[in-house]
Design a protein that fits this description.
Number of strands: 7
Strand order of the largest sheet: 1-3-2-4
Number of helices: 11
Radius of gyration: 24 Å
Largest sheet: 4 strands, mixed
Helix content: 40-55%
Length: 238
């Protein structure tokens, strides 16, 4: 393995990820992780180097790429004052998902809280459902199901494979309920962008000027619709 050009510092704990060695102060890992704190307190036999104390005996991080581990170090040990906020704003689900899994696996509470917030804000509904179930986060599952139910596009074959049969049935029921409400009221509807992605809302045409028809959304109707679908999933994911 070779030493990383920037994140092999003068003192600290040594990690090996793929074929790269990283050396960073142990404080952020022991402070935030019960696992690392216990690891560093374990007694070692005489004349035996502590795990992570040398290039010959690093702590090996499996199931993670060098790039993903580098992103974690950019959060914990930014090399510039503005380094972390700038890079974090550019990251998407692809960057935050492995950070979230690392934080759960290594029991890093602060990193888990940060990555959880960031990932939930950018993840696809299918990622929310998958992670929500594996991490026992029912709110994530419900939010993902609501987003899929309220979007304009139908499920693709590839998307359907990632869902359970009960999910597909509930999504189908929810979408039928939305359309039946529109037909029952006789109001016009249109897809618009909301916090849940694209959502079907009712429209009304106001008096026009110069052949321009101003359209006004009905937030109360939209709120009731989302609440109805959300309530349906509240019991389904418990």
């Amino acid at each position: 393995p070779v030493r990383h050009a920037e994140y092999y510092l003068d003192d600290g704990i040594i990690f090996q990820v793929e074929e790269t060695l990283f050396k960073v102060p142990r404080h952020m890992f022991t402070k935030d992780s019960a696992y690392f704190s216990q690891l560093c307190q374990l007694p070692t036999p005489e004349d035996t180097a502590q795990n992570g104390s040398s290039d010959d005996d690093p702590i090996t991080v499996n199931d993670m790429s060098e790039t993903d581990f580098l992103h974690i170090l950019e959060i914990l040990y930014p090399l510039t004052i503005s380094g972390y906020p700038k890079c974090a704003e550019r990251w998407t689900e692809a960057e935050w998902k492995p950070i979230f899994h690392f934080a759960r696996q290594w029991q890093m509470s602060d990193l888990l809280a940060e990555s959880s917030t960031r990932l939930r804000a950018c993840a696809s509904p299918f990622t929310k459902i998958s992670i929500g179930r594996s991490a026992e986060l029912p709110d994530w599952v419900r939010e993902g199901l609501v987003e899929i139910s309220l979007r304009s596009e139908p499920l693709t074959d590839d998307e359907g494979i990632t869902l359970e049969l009960s999910d597909i049935l509930n999504i189908s029921r929810a979408r039928e309920r939305i359309r039946s409400e529109v037909m029952r009221t006789g109001q016009r509807s249109e897809w618009c962008q909301t916090i849940y992605g694209e959502c079907l809302v009712y429209l009304t045409e106001l008096p026009s000027t110069e052949n321009y028809v101003k359209r006004e959304f009905h937030p109360s109707t939209l709120a009731c619709l989302i609440a109805m679908i959300d309530f349906m999933y509240s019991s389904a994911v418990q």
